[in-house]
Structures are given as structure tokens and as C-alpha cells.
Target: Oxidoreductase aldo/keto reductase family
Amino acid sequence: MKYRTLGKTGEKVSILGFGAMRLPHFETNDQIDVKTSDEILSYGIDNGINIIDTAYSYHANNLSGKGKCEEYIGNFLNEHSYRDEVLLTAKMPSWLIETKEDMEKIFESQMKDLQTDCIDLYMLHSLNEDYWKMYREIGAFEFMDSLLESGKVKHIGFSAHTEMDWIVDIVDDYDKFEFGLTQLNYLDERYQSGREGVEYIHKMGLGTMIMEPLRGGRLIQNIPQDIMDLWDTAEEKRTPLEWAFQYLWNMEEVDTVLSGMNSIQQVKENIEIANKSEINSISKNDLNLIKEVAWEYKQRKGNDCTGCQYCMPCPHGVDVAGCFREYNIAKMLNNPAGSAMHYFSLESDTRADKCIHCDDCLYHCPQMIHISEDLKKVDEFFGRKYDYF
Ligand code: SF4
Ligand code: SF4
Model:
């Protein structure tokens, strides 16, 4: 396994981290298959992975509730005596927080579930403009200071799904943040804070963690033949899985990549790729090829929405840009289930089915999209009930 230093934390972190959001489970998402998960995690740790990423909401049966992941990981680390061999992460579920007392209560329950007296890497989960403003108002900085002073947390950081401006604000507002977790893969260079966000976090001396390296596995599933043909033209031959990881590990700004692995086979393959990876080892032609592949994927999207939001606010509250974003990603990667989680994370009264087809927005779209017609397609595509678990 290769290791990099996680920015200001000074921690030596394996370049491949274990995301514990997609552990094997039985019928429902909260029924973790303990035996298989134990085997997979043990294999990963025994072969050099030293970071496990958990969150309050992982392995829940609905999109906003408490999951079983932290409890499971707490049991696993203690029963197998692995606690001292890994950096353990956990996250404050921002969408459940209204007061500082909520933060205290949830944090204490996490310590109990994780069976630890110190969480190595603690994050505010899924920051965006609204959550960040809320945290500032409720005095979250004092709470985070107290976690560091009491030793209950070793390093504080954040995960974010937001635009670049807010990454800058978040990093600059609270000077005790030591690392940040954001989404990046070769399709998402410009999605949310994208590559620029990772570069900024790194430039400010914070450690960088990457989520969604394979876009929930979708960069290696249902790959169209013409994209495979493109990969075949590479100067150095790699599998699509290798391209996805090596694209990230090629960057010196990337410290660790979290992958939600759920079989021994996946862990083995990913570790092998990590072991072979090098910074700045992809040729110029192959870097261009990665851009070409991304371009080819993007031709498959559902419509030409750029997310400019000139059509918003919709008088009936529809998040047009958000609906089209998830629709386009799903079409591009031919994988509705993968995007459905994000689509159903939009507030229920902002989804496509709330469009009343008044066409007030029609002439606002510079891309000439017939918005109400395309929202109908989005509604048909995802349906109205989240049943993709
Ligand atoms: S057509 Fe739909 S999205 Fe456009 S303004 Fe009317 S309700 Fe909103
Ligand atoms: S105006 Fe058009 S391109 Fe811009 S967000 Fe609305 S639908 Fe998308």
C-alpha cells in the first residue's frame, strides 16, 4: 500500500480508504452482512488500508435517518482488535441539526456506537451554503473547539457537496479545519467544486479526501462499446477501473480516495491498482484521452441543461436545475438507480412531479429547453418513490 500525508493533520494515510457506506447487506440496507463485511474489512486492513470512513446515516433504511454503519464498525474494530490500526472517521449529519444541543446529542451517540473515546477524523457532513450558514448561526465553531480541546476528536474536517465559492468560505471561516472530503472523478472535474475545490483545499494546507471515485460504481458498469474502443487507443493499457483510480492518484493534490467496496474481489483489485499507482505518471496523450472519454459520456445526457438557473426560481418551487442534473447524470451513465438517491435527496416539493406545466419559465432558458416537457421525462424516468435500495 502507498501512503500520503493528510495535509495539516500530519497523519500518514493509505491512498485507498475504506468507505463503509456500501457494505454487503441482506434484504434491507440496515441489515449488514456482518460475516462478509468482517472478512472484507479485515482483508483491507491486513493489506495496508488504514482509514475507515463511516457516517451517522450510512446503512439507514431511509435517506435521512440513523444508519447501522457506525454501530457495526464499532463492533468490528473492537472484536477484531483493529482500532489502533486505523484512522476512524465519522460525520455530523448536517440535515438533522438545528441547535448546538442537537450536535452534542448526536456526537455522544456516535462515540457510543463507535465504542471509542476519540474519533480520529470528524467531519461536518455534506456541507453546502444552507448548512454552513446554519452552523455559523448555532455556534458550531465553539462546539468543534470543545471536541478538539477535550480530545474527543483528533482532527476536524468537512465533507461538502457545494460550489467553489462555498468551499473557499468554509475553508477560510474556520481555521481549525485540517482536511476536506469532496467529490471528484474524471467526469466530475467541473461538477460542484470539482478539481478546483481539491486544488484549493490542498493549497490551503488541508488534507484532501476524495469520494465517488467511480461515481458509485457507474464508471465501470454498463460501459458502452465505443467508450471501450476509446480506452483501447491509450498509450498505456489500463482497465476502466484502473483509469478511474489512476486519474485521481496521478494528482499530487489528492491524499486519499475513499471507495465503497463490498467484496473481497473489489478490495483486492483496488489495492493492486493502488500499489501500482504513481503521481504524474499518465502521459499527456492519455490525459487527453481521459477528457475524450468524459466528453463521449456527456454526449449521452438527457438534455442540454447547463445548470445556469436562469429559469429559477420557479413560482411553484421546482428545482429545475437539480432535477435535470440528476436526470442527465443517470442518462449519461445509463444507471437510474445510481442517480436516484441524489434525485430523491431533493426536497419532495421541488422534484419534477411538482411542475404544473404553466410554462412561465419557457422563454428563460438560453439552451431552448422545453422545460415542462423535459420535467415530464424526468418524472417518468425516476418515478415518485425511492425504492432503489
Ligand atoms: S413549467 Fe414547471 S418548472 Fe416551469 S415555471 Fe411552470 S411549474 Fe415551474
Ligand atoms: S435555464 Fe435552461 S439551462 Fe439554465 S438551469 Fe434552467 S433549464 Fe437548465
